[in-house]
Write a structure and sequence with these properties.
Helix content: 55-70%
Number of strands: 3
Order of helices and strands: EHHHHEEH
Number of domains: 1
Distance between the termini: 32 Å
Strand order of the largest sheet: 1-3-2
Number of helices: 5
Amino acid sequence: MPILSTVNQFAEKQPAFTTSGLRALIFNENQNGLTGSGAIVRIGRKVLIDETKFFAWVAAQNQRSAA
């Protein structure tokens, strides 16, 4: 079962990510590859973050920049 959090909840649990920084990543999700990761879940107007998939996407970004 996925762990889903709102942007604010995620920012509170993970202080390395600010609310505005997360919103910027979500706004640009088509350009940064976040869409393909499945980490962003939308239910109506509510935007949720699947924590496991989000951190997998972060790890992939780190690997891509190291290559």
